[in-house]
C-alpha cells in the first residue's frame, strides 16, 4: 500500500518542525508493509514570495488528491503589510476550507515530567487531560466582512460570526462522539448571553444531547471558561466551541502543558485530514534551530491514527515522545535553568532513538 502525504512546511520554524515530523513518520512506518510518498508544496509567505499568492494552484491540486496533509506554520512580519487576501494566513484558511476540515481536534495533556514548566500547581497540572474540538471552517473567520468609509469619511470594518445549523451539528457530532470514547463529559463553550450565533449553538447542543444520553453536557460562557482553564482545568474532558473562541482557548490551554510547542492537532472532515502543530511560525526564534518539534511530531501520531488507521504506530510515536521527555530531553522552551538544552534536530534524534 502506498500513501501520498503532502507536506506544506510554510514559514519561520515551519520547515524545521515538519522536517522532524517527516523523519518520525518515515521511521514509524518502517516494517509496516506500507510506503509513504512525501511531496512538498508551497503555502503561506514562501508561496507569496515565489508565486504571488499564498495558496498556489499547484498546491491546491496536490492537497486534493493526497491521503493526508502535514503543515508546519505560515506567516511572519515580512508579510504582515499585505492586503488581507494576500496574507500567508489567508492561504491557510483557504486550505482548511478547500479540504472541508471542519473539526479541529487539539488534545491538551501534560507530560508529568514537564509539570515544572506549567504555571499550574503540580497536583492540578498532572490532572490536565482535555480534548478541544474547535469548529474550523465557519464563524468570524469566514463570514461576510468589509472595510470601508462611512459618509463622513471615517473608516469602518466588520466581520460576521455566521453559523448555519448544519455547520454546528457536524462539529458537535464529532465532539459528542469524542466525549463518548473518553470520560463522557462535554463542555460546550459559547457567548450565549450576547451572541445570536451562540444561542443557536446552545440550542443545537441541547437538541443533540438527547441522542447521547451517556454524555453529560454542560454549557459555559467563554469568558468564564478562560478563567476555569487556569483555576481548575482538571474538570474538563471534551471542550467544544466555535472557531475564534477555540483558537484563543487552545493557546491558553497549551500553556498549561508547559509550552505551546507541545500541542498537536488534527483537522478532520469527510475526507483528507490536515495535521499541524497548533503553534505559529515563531518569528522570534525562526532560523535558530531551537524550535520544539514535539507538537509537529505528535501531529504525525494523529495522522497515523486518523488518516492511515495505524493505531499501534500512532501509540509508538506518542510513547517515543513520552520516553524522550522522561529521559530529560528539553528544547529551550521546556528547559529549566541549568538543564541541558537540545536543538530541534537533537530533540528529533532523541525521539527517533526510541522508535
Ligand atoms: N497554523 C499556523 O500556521 C499558525 C498558527 C499560529 C500563528 N500563526 C502565524 O505565525 C506568526 C507568529 O504568530 P505568534 O507569534 O502570535 O504565535 P507563535 O505561535 O508563532 O509564537 C508565540 C510564541 O511561542 C513561541 N513558540 C511557538 N512555537 C514554538 C515552538 N515550536 N517551540 C518553541 N517556541 C515556540 C514563539 O517563539 C513565540 O514566543 C503570525 O503570522 C501568525 O499569524 C500561524
Ligand atoms: C494563523 C491563524 C489563521 C490560525 C487560526 O487562527 O486558526 C492559527 O492561530 C491556528 O491556531 O491555527
Ligand atoms: Mg491559533
Give the helix/strand layout.
Blueprint: E1 2-10, H1 14-28, E2 35-40, H2 45-51, H3 57-64, E3 68-73, H4 88-99, E4 103-109, H5 122-125, E5 129-135, E6 145-149, E7 155-159, H6 165-180, E8 185-190, H7 196-209, E9 216-221, H8 222-231, E10 238-241, H9 243-256, E11 266-268, E12 273-275, H10 294-306, H11 311-326, H12 344-353
Parallel strand pairs: 1-2, 1-3, 3-12, 5-10, 8-9, 8-10
Antiparallel strand pairs: 4-5, 4-11, 6-7, 11-12
Helix pairs in contact: 1-10, 1-12, 6-7, 8-9, 10-11, 11-12
The chain binds nicotinamide-adenine-dinucleotide (NAD), 3-isopropylmalic acid and magnesium ion.
What does this structure look like?
Pathway: Amino-acid biosynthesis; L-leucine biosynthesis; L-leucine from 3-methyl-2-oxobutanoate: step 3/4. It catalyses: (2R,3S)-3-isopropylmalate + NAD(+) = 4-methyl-2-oxopentanoate + CO2 + NADH. Residues 4-351 form the Isopropylmalate dehydrogenase-like domain. It is an enzyme of class 1 (oxidoreductase). One of its GO terms (molecular function) is NAD binding. The chain has a ten-stranded mixed beta sheet with strand order 2-1-3-12-11-4-5-10-8-9, with helices on both faces. A hairpin with a 4-residue loop joins strand 11 (266-268) and strand 12. It has 355 residues and is an alpha/beta fold. It has helices spanning 14-28, 45-51, 57-64, 88-99, 122-125, 165-180, 196-209, 222-231, 243-256, 294-306, 311-326, 344-353, and strands at 2-10, 35-40, 68-73, 103-109, 129-135, 145-149, 155-159, 185-190, 216-221, 238-241, 266-268, 273-275. The radius of gyration is 20 Å and the shape is globular. The two termini are 21 Å apart. The model has no long low-confidence stretch (mean pLDDT 96). Helix content is 39%, strand content 19%. Helix 10 (294-306) packs antiparallel against helix 11 (311-326). It folds into two domains: 1-104 and 260-355, Isopropylmalate Dehydrogenase; 119-256, 3-Layer(aba) Sandwich (Isopropylmalate Dehydrogenase), CATH 3.40.718.10. The chain binds nicotinamide-adenine-dinucleotide, 3-isopropylmalic acid and magnesium ion (MG). Residues 13, 17, 73-76, 89, 92, 260-261, 276, 279-285, 291-292, 295, 333 line the site of nicotinamide-adenine-dinucleotide.
Amino acid at each position: 500500500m502506498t500513501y501520498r502525504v503532502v507536506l506544506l512546511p510554510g514559514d519561520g520554524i515551519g520547515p524545521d518542525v515538519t522536517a522532524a515530523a517527516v523523519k518520525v513518520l518515515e521511521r514509524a512506518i518502517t516494517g509496516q508493509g506500507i510506503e509513504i510518498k512525501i511531496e512538498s508544496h508551497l503555502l503561506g509567505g514562501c508561496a507569496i514570495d515565489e508565486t504571488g499568492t499564498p495558496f498556489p494552484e499547484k498546491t491546491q491540486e496536490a492537497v486534493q488528491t493526497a491521503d493526508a496533509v502535514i503543515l508546519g506554520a505560515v506567516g511572519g512580519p515580512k508579510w504582515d503589510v499585505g492586503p488581507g487576501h494576500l496574507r500567508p494566513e489567508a492561504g491557510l484558511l483557504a486550505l482548511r476550507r478547500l479540504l472541508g476540515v471542519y473539526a479541529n481536534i487539539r488534545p491538551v495533556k501534560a507530560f508529568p515530567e514537564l509539570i515544572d514548566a506549567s504555571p499550574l500547581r503540580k497536583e492540578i497540572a498532572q490532572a490536565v487531560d482535555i480534548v478541544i474540538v474547535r469548529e474550523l471552517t465557519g464563524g468570524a473567520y469566514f463570514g461576510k466582512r468589509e472595510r470601508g468609509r462611512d459618509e463622513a469619511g471615517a473608516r469602518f470594518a466588520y466581520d460576521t460570526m455566521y453559523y448555519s445549523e448544519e455547520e454546528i451539528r457536524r462539529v458537535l457530532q464529532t465532539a459528542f462522539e469524542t466525549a463518548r470514547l473518553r470520560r463522557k463529559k462535554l463542555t460546550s463553550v459559547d457567548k450565549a448571553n450576547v451572541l445570536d450565533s451562540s444561542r443557536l449553538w446552545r440550542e443545537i447542543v441541547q437538541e443533540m444531547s438527547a441522542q447521547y444520553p451517556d454524555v453529560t453536557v454542560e454549557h459555559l460562557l467563554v469568558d468564564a471558561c478562560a478563567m476555569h482553564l487556569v483555576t481548575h482545568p482538571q474538570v474538563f474532558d471534551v471542550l467544544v466551541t466555535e472557531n475564534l473562541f477555540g483558537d484563543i482557548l487552545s493557546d491558553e490551554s497549551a500553556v498549561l502543558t508547559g509550552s505551546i510547542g507541545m500541542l498537536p492537532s488534527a483537522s478532520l472532515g469527510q475526507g483528507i485530514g490536515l495535521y499541524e502543530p497548533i503553534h505559529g511560525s515563531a518569528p522570534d526564534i525562526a532560523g535558530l534551530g531551537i524550535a520544539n518539534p514535539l507538537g509537529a511530531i505528535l501531529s504525525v501520531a494523529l495522522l497515523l491514527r486518523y488518516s492511515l488507521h495505524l493505531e499501534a504506530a500512532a501509540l509508538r510515536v506518542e510513547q517515543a515522545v513520552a520516553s524522550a521527555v522522561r529521559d530529560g530531553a528539553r528544547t529551550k522552551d521546556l528547559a529549566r535553568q541549568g538543564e541541558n538544552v537540545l536543538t530541534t534536530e537533537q530533540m528529533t534524534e532523541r525521539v527517533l532513538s526510541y522508535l
